[in-house]
User: Which sequence fits this backbone?
């Protein structure tokens, strides 16, 4: 990673090195912020499996937020210490852990000074849009944690390891749904006879997504002005349960959220199909987004880390492999579930979010493919596999966690937030304009009877 | 301001009304956040003079930050209570004050609930680029105060007075210096055969300017998704000391900062000319920006407040009246100062900032002019007047406050921050690439001997 003391090795896993050689790959110091999370933990295992020295930072905020809302991961997850011990048994590698919060600047500074990472992978953010929309408290917590945490990281890297590569998890949700193609971070604009390449304009759809937009702007500045190097991974919606390493031992499984706050679309749909809850399509379901398999998240992060940005470069990758509408996913899950003997229905719920339900969507995702990403595309086999794993945890599923409650519009937050809206009887916030449901709305937003894809 | 109960009155000062009629204008409830500041206090006086009910919020952070850095306003300013009493003597109007910080959500919520403003004018932010670049502490304080304060405001308005118009002070510095014309907040982009009108891309030049970019994105969201109404005033660099109301009584004068942290270009240049300090041009001085007279700031804010944005509208005005390069201003001050018997020199200092010193710059500023702004253009008379006022406070000027110290690049902050770099002997951070000054730099960045404009 520059500076002369590091070299590239191994064409298959080209990996920049500083510290020591381990097998064919030369080890680097990897610091994973949020290393106890859904993606952070599998990422830590992957880099450790490759022989890198891995340290993780976590303050267990995700586990704590679940405690606060009386929800839990579908998969039973071990404590961090047990996870680390199990991994050491399997691999012989010890992952170091630092327990603390990235929004505490002195703490993060000390960790960076001790680890002296070659690459930092930054997942340590409040990652839920509904969480950020619940109340002022939740919004402030989200933006403070995410924005100040990233600021602290920028300063710690600048101070101790200015050549370190920051790999930051962003989100495709930063872009919103513009009426033009979504490019990877920048766009060439021709205007009044002149032109420039400028940051792609952002129209994020929640206060969480806004925090990621703020992070992107701050990191871009750190690269432009301080010469730091960073890759912003604007990730689509992730689905999947297992990676090669988490499948090795029950103590290594990663968390799998299916509640309305932390669960994501496809994961939730599969859980709903297993327990006989209607599949929760918000509004018309024409909302189109980029999606990817959790295995591809690991591939993408690894590609970014092993092909670092240049000093001063703020590089943006759009990290997804396929685009789907929400309704397409619902129908895919419905069809596969029927093939394995389940009888799921698809139900159109009044959309709790404020978003376009039919819109143009075409996002570019060339850069990671050009660097060697080999996608695991979504197919029936993946759905069958997820349904099967979920069935194994069926007795852990709590029905009350599934229905959408958190609403984007004012005046509907408090009540809806406290009420446990029964599935299929969801009232309020109908027809997307903040007014109460009209007679006939239930029909319009009701259950689908026909099968389709 | 919508809702049916308010009407427009008076063609000269068209003013929306709710509460009570006072003379020709109908009074509205005006809440000014940061109402003790350079612009906040004159704004409070102006709205009060027009007969509106004015309440202000301030936590005296600007006064406190000056205490911390042993600097002070050129003008001796009265305490807030004395200011308010003096204004009541002159006008008969009582300005209400609430002492507290906007980043304390419960406090701001209570104030908004009590005042029930028709319009909020939000100046309550850390406003200095150099301050934000001093250290991690300063950066975090800046983004926390500004971003969380604005978030708190959004929620308080949504909760208590969703029809209230938020007038937010932004900055032209959000845009940076792109190679295309700077439009007012939005730009129509044609791309791959499609087009959309999207937020104008931002390339801010400091962590302070970034905080304003974040605010703009957050407020835009509040308008798009909650239907709030806001006007973002992307203001240029303000100059000037007096307004009609502050000139009425010495107890009503507003602050005037000339130190390297809170002072702005033209104000600083005039102080430097008076005390015989070289005029501090950073680098080549080709940096071009929009500027405006403090009297025009008041005009613009009044125009925005009396022509509110529509519900759901996030309106952006570029608030400046003229563009100048830094060197043009230095030469203007030099020439005028010579005419009144001073002997100022213009000195090119190694640029402590990271910024282009020669660049394309053309920003649109049509919207406020279309609504009736009548600019006070910068001329010799204004400079003579400023020099005259400053001469009256000459014995209050501290030479040590004037030279630039805070640097944008890493590794140069601590030392430069503590050192009192003597004018004309400024070392470090030369030639804009973070390396120490080379032999010859002093010549290259030295004093100008010839007069010019």
Assistant:
């Amino acid at each position: 990673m520059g500076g002369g003391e590091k070299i590239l090795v191994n064409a298959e896993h080209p990996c920049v090195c500083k510290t020591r050689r381990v097998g064919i790959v030369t080890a680097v110091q990897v610091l994973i912020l949020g290393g106890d999370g859904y993606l952070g933990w599998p990422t830590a295992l992957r880099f450790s499996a490759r022989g890198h020295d891995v340290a993780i930072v976590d303050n267990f905020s995700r586990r704590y937020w679940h405690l606060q809302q009386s929800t839990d991961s579908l998969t039973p997850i071990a404590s961090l210490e047990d996870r680390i011990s199990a991994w050491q048994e399997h691999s012989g590698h010890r992952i170091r852990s630092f327990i603390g919060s990235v929004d505490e600047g002195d703490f993060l500074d000390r960790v960076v000074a001790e680890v002296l990472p070659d690459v930092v992978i930054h997942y340590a953010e409040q990652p839920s849009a509904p969480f950020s929309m619940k109340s002022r408290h939740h919004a402030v917590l989200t933006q403070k944690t995410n924005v100040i945490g990233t600021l602290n990281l920028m300063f710690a890297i600048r101070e101790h390891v200015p050549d370190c590569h920051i790999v930051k998890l962003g989100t495709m949700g930063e872009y919103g749904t513009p009426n033009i193609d979504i490019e990877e971070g920048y766009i060439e604009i021709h205007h009044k006879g002149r032109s420039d390449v400028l940051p792609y304009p952002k129209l994020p759809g929640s206060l969480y997504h806004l925090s990621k937009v703020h992070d992107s702007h701050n990191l871009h500045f750190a690269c432009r002005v301080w010469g730091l190097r960073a890759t912003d991974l604007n990730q689509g919606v992730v689905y999947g349960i297992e990676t090669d390493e988490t499948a090795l031992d029950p103590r290594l499984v990663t968390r799998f959220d299916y509640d309305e706050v932390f669960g994501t679309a496809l994961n939730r749909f599969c859980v709903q199909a297993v327990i006989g809850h209607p599949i929760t399509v918000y509004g018309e379901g024409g909302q189109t987004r980029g999606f990817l398999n959790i295995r591809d998240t690991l591939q993408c992060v690894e590609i970014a880390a092993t092909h670092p940005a240049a000093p001063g470069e703020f590089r943006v990758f759009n990290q997804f492999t396929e685009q789907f509408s929400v309704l397409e996913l619902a129908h895919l899950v419905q069809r596969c579930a029927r093939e394995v003997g389940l009888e799921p229905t698809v139900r159109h719920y009044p959309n709790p979010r404020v978003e376009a339900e039919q819109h143009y969507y075409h996002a570019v995702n060339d850069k990671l493919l050009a660097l060697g990403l080999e996608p695991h595309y979504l197919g029936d086999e993946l759905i069958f596999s997820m349904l099967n794993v979920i069935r194994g945890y069926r007795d852990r599923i709590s029905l009350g966690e599934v229905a959408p409650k958190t609403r984007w519009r004012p005046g509907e937050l408090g009540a809806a937030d406290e009420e446990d809206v029964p599935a299929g009887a969801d009232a309020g916030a109908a027809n997307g304009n903040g007014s109460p449901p009209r007679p006939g709305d239930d029909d319009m937003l009701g259950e689908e009877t026909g099968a389709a894809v």
